[in-house]
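hey so u asked for the seq, here:
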Amino acid sequence: MSTHAPETTPAAVDDDIRLHFEVQRLYTLEAQLLDQHRYADWLELLADDLHYWAPVRTNRLRRQQALADGAPGEVAIFDETKASLAWRIRRFDSGMAWAEDPPSRTRHLITNVSVQAGDAPDEYVAESAFLCYRNRLEREVDIYAGGRTDVLRRTTDGTLRIARRTILLDQNVLLAKNISTFL
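ran it, C-alpha coordinates below
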Protein backbone atom coordinates (compact mmCIF):
# COMPACT_ATOMS: atom_id res chain seq x y z
CA MET A 1 0.00 0.00 0.00
CA SER A 2 1.45 3.33 -1.05
CA THR A 3 1.62 6.23 1.39
CA HIS A 4 2.35 8.78 -1.33
CA ALA A 5 -0.23 11.23 -2.59
CA PRO A 6 -1.58 10.52 -6.07
CA GLU A 7 0.34 12.15 -8.87
CA THR A 8 -1.18 15.28 -10.30
CA THR A 9 -0.28 17.42 -13.24
CA PRO A 10 1.15 20.90 -12.73
CA ALA A 11 -1.97 22.36 -14.36
CA ALA A 12 -4.23 20.53 -11.88
CA VAL A 13 -2.14 21.78 -8.97
CA ASP A 14 -2.34 25.34 -10.32
CA ASP A 15 -6.13 25.02 -10.62
CA ASP A 16 -6.36 23.75 -7.02
CA ILE A 17 -4.22 26.62 -5.77
CA ARG A 18 -6.31 29.18 -7.66
CA LEU A 19 -9.56 27.68 -6.34
CA HIS A 20 -8.30 27.60 -2.76
CA PHE A 21 -7.14 31.22 -3.05
CA GLU A 22 -10.51 32.26 -4.51
CA VAL A 23 -12.40 30.58 -1.66
CA GLN A 24 -10.06 32.11 0.93
CA ARG A 25 -10.66 35.55 -0.62
CA LEU A 26 -14.43 34.97 -0.52
CA TYR A 27 -14.26 34.10 3.19
CA THR A 28 -12.00 37.08 3.94
CA LEU A 29 -14.41 39.43 2.17
CA GLU A 30 -17.36 37.85 3.99
CA ALA A 31 -15.68 38.34 7.39
CA GLN A 32 -14.88 41.97 6.58
CA LEU A 33 -18.45 42.71 5.47
CA LEU A 34 -19.91 41.14 8.61
CA ASP A 35 -17.47 42.93 10.92
CA GLN A 36 -18.22 46.25 9.19
CA HIS A 37 -22.00 45.68 9.46
CA ARG A 38 -22.32 45.77 5.66
CA TYR A 39 -25.06 43.17 5.70
CA ALA A 40 -26.69 44.12 2.39
CA ASP A 41 -23.32 43.61 0.68
CA TRP A 42 -22.91 40.30 2.56
CA LEU A 43 -26.26 39.11 1.15
CA GLU A 44 -24.79 39.50 -2.34
CA LEU A 45 -22.34 36.69 -1.53
CA LEU A 46 -25.25 34.29 -0.97
CA ALA A 47 -27.11 32.31 -3.63
CA ASP A 48 -30.82 33.02 -4.01
CA ASP A 49 -31.68 29.45 -2.95
CA LEU A 50 -29.44 29.59 0.13
CA HIS A 51 -29.98 27.28 3.11
CA TYR A 52 -28.15 28.62 6.20
CA TRP A 53 -28.39 26.06 8.97
CA ALA A 54 -26.91 25.53 12.44
CA PRO A 55 -28.37 22.46 14.14
CA VAL A 56 -28.63 22.19 17.90
CA ARG A 57 -25.95 19.89 19.30
CA THR A 58 -26.25 17.66 22.34
CA ASN A 59 -23.76 15.88 24.56
CA ARG A 60 -23.81 12.16 23.86
CA LEU A 61 -21.81 9.18 24.95
CA ARG A 62 -19.07 8.15 22.54
CA ARG A 63 -21.17 5.26 21.20
CA GLN A 64 -24.03 7.71 20.43
CA GLN A 65 -21.99 10.43 18.67
CA ALA A 66 -23.97 9.98 15.46
CA LEU A 67 -26.98 11.44 17.33
CA ALA A 68 -25.11 14.48 18.74
CA ASP A 69 -25.97 16.85 15.88
CA GLY A 70 -29.58 17.75 15.18
CA ALA A 71 -31.14 16.61 11.92
CA PRO A 72 -32.94 18.72 9.30
CA GLY A 73 -36.46 19.53 10.47
CA GLU A 74 -35.47 19.46 14.14
CA VAL A 75 -34.85 22.48 16.37
CA ALA A 76 -31.96 24.58 15.07
CA ILE A 77 -30.11 27.71 16.11
CA PHE A 78 -30.34 28.92 12.51
CA ASP A 79 -32.57 27.52 9.79
CA GLU A 80 -32.65 30.38 7.32
CA THR A 81 -33.08 31.24 3.67
CA LYS A 82 -31.69 34.28 1.89
CA ALA A 83 -35.11 35.91 2.20
CA SER A 84 -35.30 35.35 5.96
CA LEU A 85 -31.75 36.67 6.42
CA ALA A 86 -32.71 39.76 4.39
CA TRP A 87 -35.72 40.25 6.67
CA ARG A 88 -33.48 40.06 9.75
CA ILE A 89 -31.10 42.59 8.22
CA ARG A 90 -33.96 44.99 7.42
CA ARG A 91 -35.03 44.65 11.06
CA PHE A 92 -31.51 45.67 12.20
CA ASP A 93 -31.85 48.84 10.13
CA SER A 94 -35.38 49.58 11.40
CA GLY A 95 -34.31 50.48 14.94
CA MET A 96 -36.57 47.72 16.30
CA ALA A 97 -33.80 45.16 16.89
CA TRP A 98 -33.03 46.13 20.46
CA ALA A 99 -30.59 43.25 20.90
CA GLU A 100 -28.39 45.06 18.37
CA ASP A 101 -28.89 48.69 19.41
CA PRO A 102 -26.19 49.76 19.99
CA PRO A 103 -24.69 47.27 17.57
CA SER A 104 -22.25 44.56 18.58
CA ARG A 105 -18.62 44.71 17.64
CA THR A 106 -17.48 41.48 16.03
CA ARG A 107 -14.33 39.93 14.68
CA HIS A 108 -14.69 36.89 12.45
CA LEU A 109 -11.63 34.69 12.00
CA ILE A 110 -11.77 31.95 9.36
CA THR A 111 -9.09 29.28 9.08
CA ASN A 112 -8.38 25.66 8.10
CA VAL A 113 -10.04 26.10 4.72
CA SER A 114 -10.22 23.05 2.47
CA VAL A 115 -12.03 22.78 -0.86
CA GLN A 116 -13.03 19.84 -3.00
CA ALA A 117 -15.30 19.22 -5.96
CA GLY A 118 -19.02 19.08 -5.21
CA ASP A 119 -21.81 16.94 -6.59
CA ALA A 120 -22.51 19.26 -9.53
CA PRO A 121 -19.93 20.46 -12.06
CA ASP A 122 -20.27 24.09 -10.94
CA GLU A 123 -20.24 23.37 -7.19
CA TYR A 124 -17.55 22.93 -4.55
CA VAL A 125 -17.63 21.81 -0.93
CA ALA A 126 -15.57 24.01 1.37
CA GLU A 127 -14.90 23.30 5.00
CA SER A 128 -13.53 25.86 7.43
CA ALA A 129 -13.09 26.57 11.10
CA PHE A 130 -14.23 29.86 12.60
CA LEU A 131 -13.90 31.95 15.71
CA CYS A 132 -16.23 34.89 16.17
CA TYR A 133 -15.60 37.34 18.99
CA ARG A 134 -18.57 39.55 19.88
CA ASN A 135 -18.58 42.50 22.28
CA ARG A 136 -21.60 44.59 23.14
CA LEU A 137 -22.09 47.41 25.61
CA GLU A 138 -19.53 47.48 28.42
CA ARG A 139 -19.43 43.90 29.64
CA GLU A 140 -21.11 41.56 27.17
CA VAL A 141 -18.55 39.28 25.53
CA ASP A 142 -19.38 36.16 23.55
CA ILE A 143 -17.08 33.83 21.68
CA TYR A 144 -18.45 31.43 19.10
CA ALA A 145 -16.19 28.70 17.75
CA GLY A 146 -16.92 25.87 15.38
CA GLY A 147 -16.78 24.55 11.89
CA ARG A 148 -18.66 25.28 8.69
CA THR A 149 -19.36 23.19 5.64
CA ASP A 150 -20.40 25.22 2.63
CA VAL A 151 -21.58 24.34 -0.82
CA LEU A 152 -20.21 27.04 -3.10
CA ARG A 153 -21.69 27.51 -6.55
CA ARG A 154 -20.07 29.25 -9.49
CA THR A 155 -22.44 31.69 -11.17
CA THR A 156 -22.66 32.37 -14.91
CA ASP A 157 -20.36 35.39 -14.46
CA GLY A 158 -17.72 33.16 -12.84
CA THR A 159 -18.03 34.28 -9.22
CA LEU A 160 -18.61 31.97 -6.28
CA ARG A 161 -21.76 32.21 -4.15
CA ILE A 162 -22.56 30.43 -0.90
CA ALA A 163 -25.50 28.12 -1.67
CA ARG A 164 -25.57 26.03 1.51
CA ARG A 165 -23.98 26.57 4.90
CA THR A 166 -24.02 24.14 7.78
CA ILE A 167 -22.60 25.57 10.99
CA LEU A 168 -21.55 23.29 13.82
CA LEU A 169 -20.86 25.28 16.96
CA ASP A 170 -18.42 23.66 19.37
CA GLN A 171 -20.58 24.63 22.33
CA ASN A 172 -23.95 22.97 22.72
CA VAL A 173 -25.25 25.48 25.29
CA LEU A 174 -25.00 29.08 24.17
CA LEU A 175 -24.34 31.42 27.07
CA ALA A 176 -25.05 34.54 25.04
CA LYS A 177 -28.17 36.58 25.76
CA ASN A 178 -28.99 36.42 22.04
CA ILE A 179 -27.44 35.24 18.81
CA SER A 180 -27.85 38.10 16.43
CA THR A 181 -24.43 37.47 14.87
CA PHE A 182 -24.03 35.75 11.52
CA LEU A 183 -21.35 33.07 11.44
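The first helix runs from residue 10 to 35. Residues 62 and 68 are 10 Å apart (CA to CA).
lmk if thats what u needed
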